[in-house]
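Two proteins follow. First one:
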Amino acid sequence: MTESRFMLAHTLRLLYRSGVVAPIRPDRLVGMARALMRFGMTAASAYAAGAARHPDHPALVDEHGVLTYTEVDQRTDRLARALADRRIGPDTRVAVLCRNHRGPVEVITACAKVGADVVLLNTGMSAEQLGAVLVEQNADLLIADQDFDRYLEFVPARCSRALAWVPDEAATTSAGLPTVESMIREGGRATLPSRPPLGKLIVLTS
């Protein structure tokens, strides 16, 4: 038995013994195990495993609608490729300044698929505090909701910027900035790693 097959069999046994999975179709169980083997204990493995187990079940619900596990898995693949095209990957950091919606979840999941660190920022901080934290954390990319666009002048020059929650993309006031939705729509050409390194999740929220 090859090492990869041994690891797959071992993972399947652990899933059964831990009670994480009830009796389930073998093909779906294999898909779940492969997700865990590929991404480890991350948001990426959770949504990939969910897509394997119950692909059409709701996974995320916000003001923009409902996303199934399959949709989240596919959308974050496209976002991960778009991030990789922007040189986001291992040893890089993505800062997230977002409220509660699909945006931060998809960003965290996509970053796990390329092995990038994620820094979750406190939405109550001032613009000056934001600038200082981005310098301290050595952030490579800031993804923020549109209502924080007034903070963008305090973002260090080395840190690129993108928008997450944009109620009306056609009417965005932050000209020239990509959005999470546009990156998902356009995707990227990068090949995602078969087993990305585990990135850090740094929580600076309240």
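Second one, unrelated to the first:
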Amino acid sequence: MSGAAPATDRALSAAGSRIDAVTLEPEPSAWADLARARFAELDEPSRNARLALGLPIDRPVIASGHQAQLWHAGIATKALAMHAVSEAVGGASCWIIVDTDEYAPGRLAWPARRDEALTRAEADVFGATPDQHVHPRASARPPAHIEMNDAVLNNLSGAVRRGCQAIGAHVDAPSIAHQVSLAAFDLLGGAGGHPVFVPVGAMLASGAWDDLLYRLRAHPALAHDTYNTAVRAHTDAGVLPLGSRPDRGVELALWRLQSPSVRRRVFERDLDTIPVTELAPRALLMTLMVRMRLCDLFIHGTGGETYDRVTEAWAQDWLDAALAPMTVATADVRLPVHDQPVTERDVAHAAWRAPHAAHHPGDLGDDTNQHLRDELVERIAEAERGSAHRAALYAELHELLQRVRIERAEHLRAHQHRSQELHQQYAERDIAEDRTWSVALLDTETIERLVDRVRAMIVQAD
């Protein structure tokens, strides 16, 4: 958060996946108090909105959310922090499921070997092809069997199956979005708690959404102008300003969802012709609604925290509303694809060491011949240039090195192999160092360590 240092817990596992960093921002000591203070100001519209969506009104609500996927550890950390804070304040958890556009809820990827090269393999639990999306509000279906034709790295085939089984355990869920979200929480071993799931689609049938639509209709120019003012004040957020058209008026922070895969921009003069059921909020308007009515603390990832600075400024200017405070939770966890990260310097050193070893017996474990080699080098340096004696010493040195290379061929090949190995690993670094692999691929010990670190940071702070 602005002006406050994040709490970052860094550790490296000796085995299994690496937890490179767990970051909670601002300092977690503030989180519980922020939630309690906001809850103390709970107003009647917020009570009504929470009751309509199955949220309690007698204790603080901690919220976060994401698309329905078997998320990576950075997103899982939001769920872990949400549960830890809700326990600390005796509150409840609310997980917002983004289900208003098509994506691939059942897509699962893993690192694999193909023709000896590390590659990214993926398949869809629901049988969708790579160019297909599934609407998350569709009815849940039994998952398809995933074929793993590539050589799955480090016995990850069991982990891929575990992800499929987690989704398959909830075929009775009301939608694919619910099914996959339940599976994602199951993969955390209960450490994410049992939040109230609130799909965005359900929020659009609530009074909180009706109220915002009324305000947009009543004063579209005000909503438009204050939005753009907030965008211009936070250019680092990367949010584009709303436009306008002479025939349709000013653009609003809405989408028209004419079909699951088609969404269009909405202008003020469109509002009288578009059915309410086809209107949906853009990202800023959605989090504005959640933070204005549904929660007392909202936990973002790093990207959401950046754009929601715009949301805060917009809500203040447009609605004279202070939103529920937001915090940030994320983590960098990487699979044990390679023993350790490979740098460009590592590659260069290995590339140097292989030919160096061919001329330095000591690098091959032969200290005796290294001593003889050094003596010959000194004698060559002292010998007269162009002399027969100097040429004879060169020949002797060459013969010595050739003999050592034959005797220590296995050691020399090891250096050459290591150089090739590091070169390949460096070429594979984008896959090896990817932090977005699903938590389904993490071993139980790594998940437990991640849970412990998040809890410790929250509990110790509170």
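SUMMARY FIELD: DSSP finds 16 helices and 14 strands in the chain. Confidence is low (pLDDT under 50) at residues 1-6, 8-15.
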